[in-house]
Amino acid sequence: MSLKGKIALITGGSRGIGKSIALRLAKAGASIVILDRVIQNETVEELQSLGVKAMGVEASVTDFSSVEKAVEKVLESFSTIDIVVNNAGITRDNLFLRMKQEEWDSVIAVNLTGAFNVCKAVNRQLFKQRAGKIVNIASVVGQMGNIGQANYAASKAGLIGLTKTLAREFAARNIQVNAVAPGFINTEMTAKLPADVKEYFIKNIPAGTFGSPEDVANAVAFLVSDEANYITGQVINVDGGMFM
Ligand code: NAI
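Above: inputs. Below: predicted complex with NAI.
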């Protein structure tokens, strides 16, 4: 699967799953723009060392005007945007009884409104090109629910609804919109979970292990390639069989 000549914008690409996606798409030949609240220069240098163009743009996906400015900056440097991966996400876990308004609002703002903002900021350009791929990083939790994650589950279920609606609205313009729903992936986000919670999860994963960020990145690489041109509005689970 070659992505030579393609420009990919990846939110939250500084570390974790987003970084793996950036590296994977770069290995397939794409130029990479990372949009993150905090740009880690080592990530940009690692991408450049693969022989592709790479840049970091510091912005929060929650702030539409900075996302718009970031997209303008990308277009000044590259003139097209072919691939958009909405990966930036946060958790603020708490049982619903104790969940504070701020915990609800902040998770919805990053995980759901953030993707809305990015899609809004790029849609005119994608329409003009009459081509493009959007992949939204959802979660099995958006399909199954999860104790302590009412905010996160709602944001990811919302992201799946956004994916399917944009897939319908954008299909005639040759823009494919899909979601990848990871299960339990070893990253900094999940490293902070208590051991008993991890044990509970592993019992419910048919594959018997947690996934790696590379597992998620491989699915994204397929969905943004020309080989996936007839796939749109789908949720591809990368979860070792956790949700089926
Ligand atoms: P992470 O916490 O390691 O990385 C998230 C990245 O997003 C960071 O670089 C962070 O700076 C960036 N970010 C956070 N808020 C931002 C904002 N407002 N604007 C721009 N960038 C922002 O997380 P991880 O584990 O790599 O997760 C990536 C995505 O995958 C998230 O959407 C997460 O919900 C999803 N996911 C992760 C799973 C896991 O097991 N780790 C499972 C299912 C989904």
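Strands lie at 7-11, 31-36, 54-58, 83-86, 132-137, 175-182, 235-238.
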